[in-house]
Amino acid sequence: MPIPQDLHDLLVSLDGKGYKSYKVLQGKSFHFPPFTLCFDHVQGDPFAAPSRLSLSTRLTEIGFSPGFHNTPTKRLAIEDHLLRLVYKKISALKNRVQGSGRSGEIAVQTPSQKVILRSGATIRDDSVTLILFAGLPGNGRSVLAKECVRLFSELLPSIWEETLTSESLDLDQVEDSIKTLEDYFALRETLDKKGWVTFIADGSLLPRQSGISDLPLKKNCVPFLSPDDLKEEIELPHKGKVSGMPVPKGITLIVGGGFHGKSTLLNAIQNAIYPHAPGDGRELIATNPTAVKIRAEDGRAAQPINISGFMGDLPLLSSTEAFSTQSASGSTSQAINIIEALEAESSLLLMDEDTCATNFMIRDSRMQALIANDREPITPLVDRIEELYKNFGASTILVMGGSGDYFDSANCVIAMDSFLPKEVTQKAKQIAKNNPTERKIEARFSFPSIHPRIRDLSPLSFRRGNKECVIQTRQLITLIIGKAEIDVRYVEHLIEEGQLEICGWIMKKAKDRQKKEGRQISIVREILNDIERSGLESITPYNSGKLSLPRYQDVLAVMNRLR
């Protein structure tokens, strides 16, 4: 694809000039038929973040008839599919241009294994726009025009020519992406109708390549196979009849020996609040979308919250009905996390004993005999878990390999054996009957009602120095707002950095609206609804090309960790 003559001549005219002369490109558009390339932001230094470009075209120009993108689900599937194609092509590029710093660096938004709304590729009406990042070549702080011409005549065009043109697109693969997403949403809609909180299809590949990789482990991986006693069959629009293991509403234990797949199963359930890309192995696993992973979180901050259902009077503190702290303990943080999840309307709590506080989960009969009840302020979860379901509709899936005291409360017990599940509910109940526990129930009153709090955001300042608004992220660890830093490393459902950035912008908008309207919780949900209708970029000053949509529960989780 030849470089447009006007772009070629402009770049040549800049050769050898100071790097900032590239700024003449900002805001200008050039036609690479059938695409239009616009320079949205031009870097001021070869060592700065690469320039942001937008590439757009009509969908019909690249082979998509209107029937391909006439529903939100189809549009989401196509956006995700196209972004992945371009990301894969860029990752495979070996030919680069010369220059200093980040000259010639090419990138797009990095997609996770999940399919979520992103701003890196967007469909509006009958057009698609892709955000690209390109380091404009420089020699020191001088323009390298020859290399820049090569960047825009060879490298960048090769990316979109081999991924986004009607000649290069495989519409069968696009259709497969659409069908996979439609099946997922159909499966998720089935859950509530059937009284389930999750469903894992037979043949799913649960294990990942490593603890720090979300890519599927395909070598020596044991495909999921549901036990006969729990196996159900459902009908999906495209896959047709699919068998698998549903987990019913209520209290479910996942038990088994160490390294037999308990946490792997919970991780798959946890991540199935999002659909997965074709080929991931988890495409046909769906979980209640309000699910929240609960864990101990030593050192987290909390604003006044009623945790009296779990924590009685603490030393030096007469009441826990409006408990606040700048550094919670493990057990206290877990209690806070449960209450906050219920405030956020979660109807499924996920827990793994490996990341829970032992004294919050259980207090056995021997410890009760040693430390009298009136000297122990903690009411353990084992004595409240049934109330959470009966009073608040919150089901629990709990990985528990070290204590059988939850057998009495469990509605379903699943044992993992060499990564395969077995239904052992009746066996667990019989064991509980034959070996009655001597521990005493320590809940002395009914669990208090949940009243969503209004967090006053007026003290929150987005200003830093001369900048009126600073919202930055540091991986999925920290959200920086002005001078404030929010530690979010244990908000496990955040899976892309763009979600965290959007949380910051939602908080800004919520603060502005709260000042006028005096509300918070409903404001957050309204803002999210507006974003889904108008696009992620509707809440930001410009489309950074790196934004992703968070859930309501996760926005509140981030907000609640503000010190």
Please state the oligomeric state of the protein chains shown. single chain
Q: What is the average per-residue confidence, as pLDDT, rounded to a whole number?
A: 95
Strand content: 15-25%
Indicate the radius of gyration in whole angstroms: 27 Å
Query: What's the CATH class of the largest domain, please?
Result: Alpha Beta
Specify the biggest β-sheet.
6 strands, antiparallel
CATH fold type of the largest domain: Rossmann fold
Q: What is the assigned CATH homologous superfamily of the largest domain? A: P-loop containing nucleotide triphosphate hydrolases
How many β-strand stretches? 25
Q: Decide which structural class fits the backbone.
A: alpha+beta
State the shape: globular
**Number of helical runs?**
13
Helix content: 25-40%
CATH architecture of the largest domain: 3-Layer(aba) Sandwich
Measure the end-to-end span. 53 Å
Give the arrangement of secondary structure elements.
Blueprint: H1 5-13, E1 29-32, E2 35-41, E3 51-58, H2 72-92, E4 106-107, E5 121-124, E6 127-134, E7 138-139, E8 142-143, H3 145-161, H4 171-194, E9 196-201, E10 208-210, E11 213-216, E12 232-236, E13 240-248, E14 251-256, H5 262-271, E15 285-287, E16 292-294, E17 302-305, E18 323-325, H6 330-343, E19 348-352, H7 358-361, H8 365-370, H9 385-392, E20 395-399, E21 412-417, E22 420-423, H10 425-434, E23 471-474, E24 478-481, E25 484-487, H11 497-517, H12 521-534, H13 552-560
Parallel strand pairs: 14-20, 14-21, 16-19, 19-20
Antiparallel strand pairs: 1-2, 2-3, 3-6, 4-6, 5-6, 7-8, 9-13, 9-15, 10-11, 12-13, 17-18, 21-22, 23-24, 24-25
Helix pairs in contact: 1-3, 2-4, 11-12, 11-13
